[in-house]
Amino acid sequence: MSARGRFIALEGGEGAGKSTQARLLAEALRGRGLEVVLTREPGGTPGAEAIRALLLGTEGEGWHPRAEALLFAAARSDHVERLIRPALERGAWVVCDRFLDSSRAYQGGGGGLSDEEIVSLHRIGSEGLLPDLTLLVEVSAGAAAYRLALRDQGASDRIGGRDLAYHAKVLEAFARFGRAEPGRFASVDGDGSPEDTHARVMATLDARLGRA
Q: Which domain holds residue 199?
């Protein structure tokens, strides 16, 4: 029976470059001979991708915070059950662009729900699964704004397009989680080139989990 795989999540605010770093990390781990599943939240399975479209689409009036949290939890439950757990059980490494801590930061810190409420939904929907390591990619406000302008070209999704006060609360929440759970979180400086950040990601990964 193969050993359980490892679960790595990348977290951070808008424009941190998480998706690029998740892709580069997956490529590097495959280069080491590992089976790697690269996925994202919300999404990763057909059902979860359908919920993603409901959550991030800009049509209509959107969702109130409790409904939004429930939809994220439902998408994550399907994602964990159908993709993440089976991959880990067969020995694959899972690299995920966002996971539970984004719900804690966005629907909790930004949306005003309590951390206990978000974590309770996760315990019910996904049996409390947590990453082995959560890489918190942190960038300066200027770098984030520049990257968002290039990425979105004036057309943000529903959550990314919320006001600065909301996103400031999100960043505060991420920083708080990192301080409270240093055993699971590791901060990575995301300013500079994608290659520079990737080098820091790999050094952090190897220091925290050992070289795969």
A: 7-209
Crossing angle of the two packed helices 65-79 and 46-56, in degrees rounded to 10: 160
Instruction: State how many domains the chain has.
Output: 1
Name residues whose C-beta falls within 8 Å of residue 76's C-beta, 6 or more positions apart in sequence.
41, 42, 48, 99, 100, 103, 122, 125, 126
CATH code at position 93 = 3.40.50.300
The pair of structure tokens assigned to 128 is: 């409390």
Q: How far from chain centre, in Å, is Cα 72? A: 12
| C-alpha torsion sign, points 78, 79, 80, 86 | positive
Q: Which of 12-21, 76-85, 122-131 bottoms out in mean pLDDT, i.e. has the lowest?
A: 12-21
CA distance 77 to 79: 5
Amino acid 167: pLDDT? 81
Tens of pLDDT, residue by residue over 96-144, are 999 999 999 999 988 899 999 999 999 999 999 999 999 999 987 666 6
